[in-house]
Description:
The chain has two helices and no strands.
Amino acid sequence: MTDDATENPNHGKIIPLARRRRCPICGQPQVHAFRPFCSQRCADQDLGRWLTGSYRIAADEEADVDEDADGGS
Ligand SMILES: [Zn+2]
């Protein structure tokens, strides 16, 4: 159904957040050069989160066995 388009012909013109994307890390307006981030710093942080997150999951599984064999701290 395209009733929406007929009822709101200006709907396509109203783009509140689509044009104003913000950095997912710090919330500042993103910079074209570092999209979708605001700076290289935030881009690195996001990458770090990703790597840390993946590492954590993998490490967590191994830590369970390692800790047992290591006897904890
Ligand atoms: Zn940022």
